[in-house]
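User: For my dataset I need records formatted as: sequence, then structure tokens, nothing else. Please produce one.
Assistant:
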Amino acid sequence: MKKGSKNNGSEDSIPELPFQVQEAYRELRTNIMYALARESNKKAIAISSALHSEGKSITSANLAVVMAQTDARVLLIDADMRKPKQHKIFNMSNDKGLSSILGGFTSFSNFNDVIFAETTVKKSPHVMPAGKAPPNPSELLGSDRMTHLIEKLSEYYDYIFIDTPPINIVTDAIVLVKKVAGIALVTRHNQSKYKELARAISKLELADANILGLVVNAVREKSSLFGNYYGYKYGNYGYGENATKK
């Protein structure tokens, strides 16, 4: 297992995030833990969005960090092999990764060769980058090899978070829904369109996915104690005016 960047942060904080945003992530962590408790036979959840630039990758990264701070063994997989970001977020190499294993270039017995130990903060997650872009990402993610990989990794990790491509762009996230405990959808306040969100939910329902909830990021909050800040909200998915509100 390879090491990532050096640790300059404290044990209990997410670097460069305001306290209020950290607390929002911890609340999200609690909700995820309860959701996974109902799916005791599966440890992996997928995280996606309807379209690009809605914050799914940074949400996945920060959620993995706060989950690791509970002393749980956490793995973050970058399954967005078309536009990977986790190696940039954690300052890691992307020469090898998920595509190496799914493409047969790295064996299951050597999966530690494509997992990096993130050392930016203590009690940190392990990260499997996407690796070099393959010609057939959807087929690889929907393969029996991916199923076997998740099962194998579940023997070593308590929680596995999978950052997947946007649902309304490609089918990559849809082919994973039966391999994971559920999927969380990330939306961006004042950017995400309800029409596109409803379209993504419709696709997930058609695939009989377990939709864990919605994460609304970049919400501008007002508090007499803390002033204005950008935070995250989490809620059960549904239709109607308040579908994405806590």
